[in-house]
């Protein structure tokens, strides 16, 4: 019953926003918001159409460009996602979020060095952007740069001590650096914070810590 009510509510929101778009067909934000609502409802094709319309009206609409890039990233169309995030970065060279997105795309492609470069640039622009530090730690681990991975993961934990993901990433980095006891402490903290810990990693770490 709850799901049915939820579905009914989203349909009401869609209908209301569609009415706004019909009344204001040249309003960038109206199309942008409708695109996000469609995305929330699982209507990705409609979301793409509305976000593209917003960009057609205003080619500098960074929010629409970045959100459209996120949809293509989710679809595995990394070329299109990369193109859109680079476009956003050209409009605003200090947009750290776009740099993080580019890093994610490069990391997904297995290009760890390129991902690291993008994440590092993001941390220089916005040192408090936790997603940049989290992903930087992961990319350093991929490159077996364990000391740097620990440093980046510690920065993420310092920025948000209540982030289960940050504690998990630090546990992984510490594991590869050989600090098993400290890694186990952070893994347990990640679990306490509700993070879904990989049981295989947890078992392997406990075995190492007991040696």
Automatic annotation (TrEMBL):
It comes from Desulfobulbus oralis. TPR repeats lie at residues 28-61, 62-95, 96-129, 130-163. Signal peptide: none annotated. The keyword Zinc-finger does not apply. Gene3D superfamilies: Tetratricopeptide repeat domain. This is Uncharacterized protein. The keyword Transmembrane helix does not apply. Pfam families: TPR_12, TPR_14, TPR_2. InterPro entries: TPR-like_helical_dom_sf (IPR011990), TPR_2 (IPR013105), TPR_rpt (IPR019734), Ycf3 (IPR050498). PROSITE patterns: TPR, TPR_REGION. Keywords: Repeat, TPR repeat. It comes from the Bacteria.
């Amino acid at each position: 019953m709850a799901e049915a009510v939820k579905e009914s509510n989203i349909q009401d929101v869609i209908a209301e926003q569609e009415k706004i778009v019909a009344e204001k067909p040249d309003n960038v934000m109206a199309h942008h918001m409708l695109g996000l609502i469609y995305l929330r409802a699982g209507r990705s094709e409609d979301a793409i159409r509305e976000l593209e319309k917003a960009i057609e009206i205003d080619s500098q609409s960074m929010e629409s460009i970045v959100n459209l890039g996120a949809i293509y990233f989710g679809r595995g169309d990394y070329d299109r996602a990369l193109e859109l995030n680079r476009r956003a970065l050209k409009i605003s060279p200090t947009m750290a979020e776009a740099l993080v997105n580019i890093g994610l795309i490069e990391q997904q492609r297995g290009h760890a060095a390129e991902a690291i470069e993008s994440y590092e640039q993001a941390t220089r622009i916005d040192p408090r952007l936790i997603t940049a530090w989290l992903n930087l730690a992961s990319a350093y681990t991929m490159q077996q740069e364990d000391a740097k991975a620990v440093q980046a993961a510690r920065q993420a934990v310092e920025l948000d001590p209540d982030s289960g993901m940050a504690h998990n990433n630090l546990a992984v980095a510490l594991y590869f650096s050989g600090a098993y006891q400290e890694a186990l402490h952070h893994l347990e903290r990640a679990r306490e914070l509700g993070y879904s810990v990989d049981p295989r990693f947890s078992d392997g770490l406990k075995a190492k810590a007991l040696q």
